[in-house]
Write a structure and sequence with these properties.
The complex is a heterodimer of chains A (about 400) and B (about 450).
Chain A lengths: L1 H14 L9 H11 E2 L16 H30 L6 H34 L6 H11 L7 H13 L15 H12 L1 H4 L18 H6 L10 H6 L11 H14 L4 H25 L4 H4 L4 H4 L3 H8 L10 H21 L7 H38 L1
Chain B lengths: L3 E3 L13 E6 L5 E3 L9 E3 L6 E2 L4 E5 L6 E3 L4 E8 L5 E8 L18 H10 L7 E3 L3 E2 L8 E5 L10 H5 L3 H12 L5 E7 L15 E6 L7 H8 L8 E4 L1 H13 L5 E7 L7 E6 L5 H4 L8 E5 L6 E3 L11 E6 L5 E2 L56 H9 L3 H6 L11 H6 L6 H16 L1
Parallel strand pairs in B: 1-14, 2-17, 12-13, 12-15, 13-14, 16-20
Antiparallel strand pairs in B: 3-9, 4-6, 5-8, 6-7, 8-9, 10-11, 10-15, 16-17, 18-19, 18-20
Helix pairs in contact in B: 3-5
Classes of the chains: A mainly alpha (about 400), B alpha/beta (about 450).
Chain lengths: ~400, ~450
């Protein structure tokens, strides 16, 4: 350990101002602080500081996502072999899936972090850890067969247009990972939707439609996968979104550690469930032929990307509402919008991505009104005090 | 009256090295008044090196408010006017006499004095600066009529002195101090005590005050929180606040007719061999106080508590307003993969370190390392968990960063001071220097409004 430290100290001057590799300063700093917590001490203000930092925070979000990645890899293999009618062992399934998913993960990290490092260097900043999570999310929300060049392009788009042009980490309006997903969705719809993309190297004869796809075409409820398959994730879909069970465990983990906002998670589920219930009630009167209205309300929460979006996407602290009251409103509206798009929009079977992106845009407005209420309250108190003195 | 107000948002940081309840008298070889302790004061010095002073002799006055002056806590010889960069006056150092002499200000019963006479006595003796005001948290303006005076008689910050112990046996002189303060406001004097303990406190017999009880974690003992809950400061309003030992100093002025700068200070922190209470005087050098009582290794000396105190060196002086010296280990080391280790000994408000599995009463040895690099303000909802004000902390901080005076006023800057943001700064993931930002905002606001 000391030997590594000594080595780092020895090569450090090369990367500092005036050094030979000054242009790699931010990169060096990122690797140094990855290896060692800096020795910087406080000078004024609070002399002691909490042990938590951005690395710890982002690191724990990644830990919450790891089970989803591993399960996703296995499920990619499982769905593939299922479509071909082949029985495969756990390891065969996992190996097949890993070969599909790992390259996406690597491309996402290499492209995204490369751009982040460049921008940090140009700005003279330290590299922010936010992309460790974004880069991990991207492979989880794309279909398993997504071509790598598309992943690279979408990641670059998300980091540059979604984040850096706004001033970098902490300044972006939209969730970067979802920006990448939306870019793919609108640029390459044939690779992102339909019946063919959700199972890797699917056998032609096998129907690869997701539950949402079936509902869009008003197939009967009986044609949907079983509730337990949908809950535990043994269904086709984007790599990491299928297992509601593991998503909830990850969510619980984030809530207990204090990283994720339970307000947002809870309110997204509540909003979605509430509107779905309402559709159940009015469905028979307004649109009896629409099976999407008739399915049990909780189906919405375990189908598609709803749970994944609620737990890992809507809770992104930068693009979500920032006030606690605002988080409730923001969350409920995401849930409502997602179900609204699913049920009433004839073109899109899934509404979660658009619902979150839409509310990302509206989050500052929600916060504005929440904060205004506080300001008005203070102003009222001031006026009352003035009346009392005159 | 006197219901218990419960504070929910906050955090008690349990550190090793709480002072044992024994008072040791220590004679210090030097004393100093430090102009930087007084925010916004521009010192005009009245003494030169070599001058003889008594306890209560004026050392300097404020260029902007000439009636506010600071006096010597001891009699002796002015040893040095220590200056820093750009010749800023940092310390007026006095070598004390063996036999103490005092300037006489005359004994008096404050109940028989007028408001003007009391103010005059406090100003001329140099005791006035113990009274501070909100907004801006600066020395009170004698021309103001505060709507109320607040005294927090308990301190919830880490390792803070126990005022019930410190004031014990001094209830009478404390009462004299209260009687003097009573003449300064037409409003209420709020005496805020720790609620829920149930036992009778040395403060419970005090008259001319409204007793309020507060319960909950730090910052329940911060006067800013108490003001916010009892009678928040509106634009244009002023409240004054002071601490129990400062009330006693005022009381002594009237009972003894002198500036008696005696004060009890808690010597605390994990690096102190025997943490204890010390009887000393305002501005004492810590050399004798810490002698043979500090553990080996690189340590930091803090005048005040770990959250809001001032860094001093081992021959530094106790700050004018401080009743605590804290000694912590310095954190200038590299920790390999520190951010990734389980962290059973790493205290954190979040549950991202396994230290949360320990019982809450467990005490920690925390050092001065930042534990991470400076980052953008990313996490939200974090500050609110330790900020029991009806104020949006993140929005206020952003208004300060952008120097948006109107937004600062709207968001409640008049109600806060740096110390109210100390916990916010402590838990902040982005490692932003929040307290100095808040001070910057307060100074800007004060400039705009004057």
């Amino acid at each position: 350990m000391n030997a590594i430290r000594n080595f780092v100290d020895k090569i450090k001057p090369n990367f500092q101002k005036g050094g030979r590799f000054e242009y790699l300063h931010s990169t060096f700093d990122a690797f140094e602080t990855f290896l060692f917590v800096p020795n910087k001490t406080t000078t004024s203000g609070s002399h002691i500081r909490d042990y938590i930092d951005m690395k710890r925070t982002m690191g724990w979000v990644v830990i919450a996502l790891v089970p989803l990645l591993l399960f996703g890899m296995w499920n990619v293999g499982y769905q593939h072999h299922l479509s071909h009618g082949v029985t495969a062992t756990l390891w065969e399934n996992f190996f097949f899936g890993a070969l599909k998913v790992l390259p996406i993960l690597i491309v996402s990290y290499v492209v995204g972090l490369g751009i982040e490092f460049m921008f940090a260097q140009i700005r003279g900043h330290e590299v922010n850890e936010g992309f460790l999570v974004s880069g991990f999310l991207i492979p989880l929300i794309v279909p398993p067969d997504t071509p790598l060049w598309m992943v690279a392009l979408a990641t670059a788009f998300a980091v540059i247009i979604g984040k850096e042009v706004f001033g970098g980490t902490g300044m972006n309006i939209l969730n970067p990972a979802l920006t990448a997903r939306a870019f793919l969705f609108f640029s390459y719809p044939q690779a992102m939707s339909g019946d063919k993309v959700w199972i890797a190297e699917k056998a032609d004869a096998y129907s690869g439609a997701t539950a949402l796809g079936k509902l869009l075409t008003n197939e009967p409820i009986e044609s949907l996968p079983s509730v337990s398959d949908m809950f535990f994730g043994l269904i086709p879909g984007s790599v990491g979104e299928t297992s509601t069970f593991l998503i909830l465990i990850g969510g619980l983990f984030l809530v207990i550690t204090g990283i994720g906002s339970w307000r947002i998670m809870l309110s997204v589920f509540a909003g979605g469930y509430g509107l779905a219930l309402l559709f159940n009630l009015i469905g028979p009167y307004v649109a009896p032929e629409n099976t999407y209205m008739a399915i049990p309300a909780y189906y919405h929460l375990i189908m598609g990307g709803f749970a994944f979006g609620a737990v890992f996407m809507a809770t992104d602290p930068v693009s979500a509402a920032q006030t606690n009251k605002g988080k409730w409103i923001y969350g409920v509206l995401i849930g409502v919008m997602a179900v609204l798009i699913r049920v009433l929009n004839p073109a899109y079977p899934e509404g979660m991505m658009l619902a979150i992106l839409l509310m990302n845009v509206f989050a500052p407005l929600i916060d504005y009104y929440v904060v205004q209420a506080n300001i008005k309250k203070r102003l009222k108190r001031f006026q009352k005090a003035q009346l009392a003195t005159t | 009256m006197s219901e218990i107000i419960t504070i929910k948002q906050g955090l008690d940081i349990n550190l090793l090295g709480e002072a044992e309840k024994v008072i040791q008298p220590v004679e210090s070889g030097l004393y100093a008044i430090k102009p930087p302790d007084f925010i916004g004061v521009f010192p005009k010095v009245l003494v030169q090196e070599g001058d003889r002073v008594k306890a209560g002799t004026s050392l300097f006055y404020d260029k902007y408010r000439e009636n506010i002056k600071l006096t010597s806590p001891v009699s002796g010889t002015v040893k040095e006017l220590r200056r820093g960069e750009k010749r800023v006056l940092l310390e007026i150092i006095i070598e004390p006499d063996v036999q103490q002499e005092y300037e006489e200000f005359g004994k008096a019963d404050p109940n028989r004095l007028s408001r003007e006479e009391i103010i005059e006595k406090l100003l001329s003796s140099g005791i006035w600066p113990v009274i501070r005001q909100r907004p801006y948290d600066v020395i009170a303006n004698p021309a103001d009529h505060p709507k109320a005076i607040f005294i927090s008689a308990f301190d919830t910050s880490p390792l803070a002195p126990d005022y019930d112990f410190v004031v014990n046996g001094k209830s009478e002189v404390f009462q004299t101090g209260i009687d003097a303060l009573k003449k300064l406001t037409k409003g209420i004097i709020h005496l805020n005590l720790k609620g829920g303990a149930g036992k009778s406190s040395v403060f419970s017999g005090i008259k001319n005050v409204q007793v309020n009880y507060f319960k909950g974690p730090h910052p329940a003992g911060n006067v800013g929180v108490q003001i916010n809950k009892l009678d928040p400061v509106n634009k244009g309003e002023v409240v004054w606040h002071l601490r129990p030992q400062e009330v006693i100093t005022i009381g002594r002025l009237f009972n003894e007719g002198r500036y008696n700068a005696e004060k009890i200070v808690a010597l605390t922190g994990s690096e102190v061999l025997k943490p204890t209470y010390i009887r000393t005087k305002v501005g004492a050098v810590i050399t004798e106080i810490i002698r043979d009582n500090i553990k080996e290794g690189k340590v930091r000396f803090i005048s005040g508590n770990p959250l809001t105190g001032t860094k001093i060196d081992k021959h530094g002086f106790i700050g004018f307003y401080d009743s605590q010296i804290t000694v912590l280990p310095e954190g200038d080391y590299h920790e390999m993969f520190g951010w990734a280790l389980p962290g059973f000994k790493k205290f954190s408000y979040s549950r991202t370190f396994f230290s949360w599995l320990h019982p809450k009463s467990r005490k920690y040895r925390l050092d001065t390392n930042f534990h991470g690099g400076r980052r953008a303000l990313v996490m939200t909802g974090e500050m609110e968990k330790v900020f029991p004000f009806d104020i949006y902390p993140m929005q206020l901080i952003k208004a300060i960063i952008t120097e948006d005076v109107e937004a600062m006023e709207n968001l409640g800057i008049y109600e806060v001071a740096e110390e109210d943001f100390a916990l916010v700064e402590y838990i902040d993931t982005s490692k932003t220097e929040i307290q100095s930002l808040v001070r910057k905002g307060l100074d800007l606001m004060r400039k705009e409004m004057s």
